[in-house]
Amino acid sequence: MPSILLEIQETVMKYADIMSKVAQVEVEVVDENLFRVAGTGIFEQHVNEDMAQEGYVYEHLLRTGNVEIIYNPGKERLCQKCPKMDICNEEIEISMPIRLGGEIIGVIGLVGSTPEQKERVLSNEKMYLDLLAQIAEFIAVKAGELTESKKRAVLLDALDCVINHVEKGILILGGDNVVTMANEPAKRQLSVDMPEGQMAVVTPTGDNFSRQNEYKILLNGKEYFVMGHLYDLDQDPRRYSKVLIFESTREMQERFYEITNTVNPLSTFNIIGTSPQTRQMQEEIKKIARSTSTVLITGESGTGKELVATAIWKASDRRDNRFIAINCGAIPEPLLESELFGYVKGAFTGADPNGRMGKFELANKGVIFLDEIGDMPLYLQVKLLRVIQERKITRIGSNQVIPIDVRIIAATNKDLKEMMYNNKFREDLYYRLNVIPLKIAPLRERREDIRELVYYFAKRYASLFGKNLQKISEETMEHLYEYPWYGNIRELENTVEFMINMMEEDGVLNMGTLPANISEPQPGVGKTGESGTVVTDMVTPLRELERSEIAKAIRIYGNDTEGKKQAAKKLGIGLATLYRKMEGTDDTAGKR
């Protein structure tokens, strides 16, 4: 391994040359291995030679650390063991150790080979000693710089090894905002291969949550938003001024998503059914999935609007990103805004002290599903409209504008046009949401799907409950087929789950497994008496008859505003009365 003086040989030779010209004598430098590192004059041609056999005086200095002046070379005590003692042609020699941190790393020698040089040295002995000491110090300083540089390099290598095994991004900046070090996670999160040497301006946005601050990094003309902490460094501020330890906002979103994921894992199956309505909807989903336009799904409660939204997401280019669902009717109005847009630390009384990301931010690059959009308060409808138009959000309590790329799918079981007429829903928002309308038919209008759905739910819940399903009796299936299913697929699923729970060891779903409200005869269904005539053992309540006729009229004329007007006319009632009775119908259906 080369000595430290040999590693800075070029610098040592430069100092030796300067000393020789100033003192007008010859100069040589050896390292701790008695290897000549530098030399002038008669010594220059012997640089890089081993002096172990002739450098006795230098060996003595390496052991003692003393400064030696030999006034009569070849004749003094120190010269007695030198193999060249009898042929020595030197007139005077001054030798001085080179020290680094208390350790002798070499010797610098001043040699006069003529009587004139000897006279000059003797007449200015102190000056020559001081000059030699100064040159030795200069060499030691340079050696020290290299030693520190090597230590720093070792530390940086160790640090580099450590920080590249840290999951968070680490960015070290110099005083001029130039990147001096970046670990692999930082390069990955900032999408750059070699950021070292490039300018990176790190600015706090003022937002903070989850005990971390948000920063904007401007690098290569691009903006990146990250969460973390920025620290000042005291050592070597020119190269190491600040260190930013961070994770990308995207990675924090992933963590929040894992905690707050609202996708129902049981709702990601394919759309089931073979009815013309279902087949048409399946084709429409394929077309809709190719777009990024907003979608408005309408249909009665329980028809599977979230399932359809999930199917659109699964079939789209955004399927590898997140699907975030939020029920606008299930969250108290004061909290809905914070759920949608998020908030920073201290945004409002009772808020999480760490702040929180909103659903829109979590859904970035993916899909957000706004269920029961008709229940969204008017003041939030204004904010939602702005998000759709500008594709930007602002967290509550913050001034930081965050760009987002989110596809919006909304759903409702309400008549939004009627709500617009009554000033309960914004017209401009309606048209922004209704770019692609998708209407789901109620289950009673696509009875061909019932058999397949029953078998699907039966097999799933039998597996879930560890039961052995053998078959479903035809009588039971016919009864399920004839039932009106005002609660749609949700009611059907709950019914089948109940039946699996009630199933006997024989593994057969029969009439005995049906819930009481379904196994009872339906309104208008008669029995055959002994005489062969049909008799009724019950009187159908007027409310049931009314509900049945209203449902029939809506099936015939449609569930939109125009269809309801025609249905009301056919039923002989006003439109407002029809709405009132339908609300009553919905209440009744919800209790089934």
Description of the molecule:
By secondary structure, this protein is α+β, with helices and mostly antiparallel strands. It has five domains: 2-147, GAF domain (Beta-Lactamase, 2-Layer Sandwich), CATH 3.30.450.40; 166-254, Beta-Lactamase (2-Layer Sandwich), CATH 3.30.450; 260-437, 3-Layer(aba) Sandwich (Rossmann fold), CATH 3.40.50; 441-517, Helicase, Ruva Protein, domain 3 (Orthogonal Bundle); 540-581, Arc Repressor Mutant, subunit A (Orthogonal Bundle). 41% of the residues lie in helices and 20% in strands. The strands form seven sheets. Strands 7-6-11-10-9-8 form a six-stranded antiparallel beta sheet. A five-stranded antiparallel beta sheet has the order 2-1-5-4-3, with helices on both faces. A hairpin with a 4-residue loop joins strand 1 (26-31) and strand 2. The chain is rod-shaped, with a radius of gyration of 44 Å. Residues 262-269, 524-538 and 585-592 have low confidence and may be disordered.
Strand content: 15-25%
Radius of gyration: 44 Å
CATH class group of the largest domain = Alpha Beta
CATH topology of the largest domain: Rossmann fold
User: Could you tell me how far the N terminus lies from the C terminus, measured between alpha carbons in angstroms?
Assistant: 89 Å
State the major sheet.
6 strands, antiparallel
Shape: rod-shaped
Q: Uncertain segments of ≥5 residues (pLDDT<50)?
A: 262-269, 524-538, 585-592
Q: How many structural units, i.e. domains?
A: 5
Structural class: alpha+beta
Compute the number of strand runs: 24
Number of helices: 21
Say which CATH homologous superfamily of the largest domain is assigned: P-loop containing nucleotide triphosphate hydrolases
Query: Which range best describes the helical content: under 10%, 10-25%, 25-40%, 40-55%, 55-70% or over 70%?
Result: 40-55%
Overall mean pLDDT stands at 84
Order of neighbouring strands in the sheet with most strands: 7-6-11-10-9-8
CATH architecture of the largest domain: 3-Layer(aba) Sandwich
